Amino acid sequence: MPAIEKLEANITSDVFRSQKSTSELWRIEPLKARISRLIKIQEWTKNHRKSIQDAIYKDFRKPSAEVDLSEIYLVLSEIKHALKNIRQWAKPKKAESNLALLGTKSYLHFEPKGVCLIISPWNFPFNLTVGPLISALAAGNTAILKPSELTPNCSEVIARMVAEIFDPSEVAVFNGGKEVAENLLQLPFDHIFFTGSPAVGKIVMQQASQHLTPVTLELGGKSPAVIDRTADLTDAAEKLVWGKFINGGQTCIAPDYLLVEETVEEALLDNLRRVIDQFFDPEGHGIETSPSYARIIGTKHFDRLDSMLTDALEMGAEIECGGIVNKADNYFAPTVLSKVPLTARIMKEEIFGPILPIITYHDISEVIELINSKPKPLALYIFSGSSVFQNKILQETSSGSVAVNDCVIQFMNPNLPFGGINHSGFGKSHGHSGFLAFSNQKSVLKQKIGLTSVKPLFPPYTSLTKKAIDFLLKYL
Length: 476
Ligand code: NAD
Fold this sequence. Notes:
CATH class of the largest domain: Alpha Beta
Distance between the termini: 60 Å
CATH superfamily of the largest domain: Aldehyde Dehydrogenase, Chain A, domain 1
Largest sheet: 7 strands, mixed
Number of domains: 2
Bound molecules: nicotinamide-adenine-dinucleotide
Number of helices: 15
């Protein structure tokens, strides 16, 4: 191991060891200590709104209104929800006993897991790092954070916030790229919460298996939106354009592609074109000058999107709007494609950018077959006025979440567990689910000294014991 990496490995394991000691103290402290930590993050976030906006603007020109909505609002809402419910969540929950255990008391005790690792992506850099931290702290854990190297300005703000509120033996930030994450993954954490791509998710799970560390994997994939002839196309177009093109299209639950009933394709396209102009080019100066439209995070992702678009066009797809790019500025126009072959790369890989392919269908069975032929998506959207149509898709497909006649906003309800299934991840986050992800639900049974309802079942197995067993089985 080169000297510098060895030094970093030493620092991470020193911090890890110090957090291990803290986590033992934090197990027995009163709940108000956890509450005060959450309040400190709440106050810091409110007081540093401008620094957070500026940092993310520098990272990928994310408009400040989008930072407010999709980073600051969501973090503050997660804290408010945790503060309101933490006493209820942390209270031991009574469990019913059965006949065989008559006289005993059973309950669930929620204990902190211990020292947790949170690895986060760049696309919602503040929200997806601080959001899981809130759940980890609400559940009484210490944490090490590894934000993304692709948003250095926001990662620096997070490091500053943590340094101002916590000692590294409580919460610590290690900024840097994959080597830093690889180093951290050697340590025996009590829980790993990873948000990122399915490819890196597999590596994280493999590394976690060394220590049998439980993982929450919040991954990505291709989230479809289905639009049938009973949908309100004006309403659907507004919601789809917002959900697809906020954050420059770089949203894990953005509609990845549209499945549109063939009779309404033209009308939907007219609406999409109109709404894109209305949102991002109301004065006709060109979307590139719009202060409401973010940039692609960097050259690597820009090139990936550009080559995906070229591949689709070479295979017969047609540009319905957009298609304009400026590599020097990482600008990629909101782009809608029709006549997209299912064999094009754009229909096989997660797009994670502002390109929206449209696939038409004739019959609902084609929709279900196509969705079920792909890995289970993180989200699925249905735009339809028909409850029969909505229910058929709900029942016959599988996905992490579903929104009907809307998109993306399911993420904003802290009462809805958020997460994927199989390839789009597993384990749930937000609100109570986030608290549970970072808690060990310890099962506790209390018996009185000298008593046990199973005494008649102890060996030796006489005819009386067998009668007692027969009696027990009779009640099943
Ligand atoms: P990524 O997987 O490339 O990186 C995520 C994090 O993992 C970063 O901090 C990175 O430094 C780290 N990392 C990279 N290589 C690693 C390795 N070999 N070992 C350990 N850690 C490593 O993802 P990204 O490009 O930052 O984000 C985009 C992906 O994240 C998309 O697939 C998107 O759908 C997904 N995503 C999912 C959610 C969700 O909530 N489910 C939210 C946002 C993004």
